Amino acid sequence: MTFWAGANDVSMIQMADVGVGICGQEGRQAVMASDFAMGQFCFLKRLLLVHGHWNYQRAAYLVPYNFYRNAVFVLMLFWYILCTAFSTTSILTDWSSVFYSVVYTSIPTIVIGILDKDLSHRTLLQYPKLYGAGHRHEAYNLQLFWITMIDTLWQSLVLFYVPLFTYKESAIDIWSMASLWTIAVVILVNMHLAMDIKRWVFITHAAVWGSIIITYACMVVLDSIPIFPNYWTIYHLIKSPTY
Fold it and tell me: What span, in angstroms and rounded, lies between the C-alpha atoms of 208 and 187?
């Protein structure tokens, strides 16, 4: 990270990973070439100690979480392939596979990546040593990543086999099971995210719980289209006493 104010510092700002330009009497060339711009050096303290810490905590959590929410979905499909002796049948429609990352689970991830805060700005300014958490790799490191992957593995096993054994003696078809697995994985990843949220506000509640509601709504719409193979399955599933 570099901090410069003059036109002769533009090349150094461009070479740095993060460049901060100060808008002063020497012109705005440094500001135009920088990643962050400020009017006074006194703002630098808040930029580093507050926003720097918040951004590190958000990025450190969302990187393994995005691996988690996609891996648990893919592993669920992998267990299905094992159960069907590596057949070419698909458990989900193309729409469900696309909507999982684009609609069902994307909004909470974006909201938490922007709004979540582990500590208040007053606390971070009062205790500058908290900024060192990033240098010590406390929130994201290789050990935490593999712990997340192991957690993903067993959660995907539970996610797949519990509904499978629960409905083993029932008469519902595979498309009804697919609807059940889709709902279950969306609820799982959103609950996992909800347990790790440190700052709840209205938009956070709307994103997390609204994502589950949107999933149900989309599945009702998709299962109401006669040309899809999963036509009317969500209605049969809801009527089931086991559900």
Answer: 9
Token pair, residue 68, equals 């988690």
Instruction: Please answer whether residues 4 and 15 qualify as being in contact, where contact means their C-beta atoms are separated by less than 8 angstroms.
Output: no
Q: Assign 54 a pLDDT band (cuts: 50, 70, 90).
A: very high
Cβ atoms 79, 160 nearer than 8 A = yes
Rounded to 10°, the helix 53-83/106-115 angle is: 160
Task: Tell me the backbone φ, ψ of residue 38, rounded to 5 degrees.
Answer: -145, 160
Question: Considering Cα of 207, then 209, then 212, then 214, what sign does the dihedral take?
Answer: negative
Task: Kindly report, residue by residue over 59-98, the tens digit of the pLDDT.
Answer: 999 999 999 999 999 999 899 988 888 887 777 877 888 8
Cβ pair 219, 178 in contact under 8 A: no
Q: Tens digits of per-residue pLDDT, 173-182?
A: 777 788 888 8
- Among positive and negative, which fits the CA dihedral 195, 201, 203, 206? positive
Question: 185-206, pLDDT tens digit by residue?
Answer: 999 999 999 999 999 999 999 9
DSSP state of 101: I
pTM: 0.84
Given 3-state DSSP classes, what are the helix, strand and coil percentages for the chain, each rounded to the nearest 5? Answer: 70, 5, 25
Report the SS3 class of residue 2: strand
- The whole-angstrom separation of Cα 186 and Cα 105 is 7
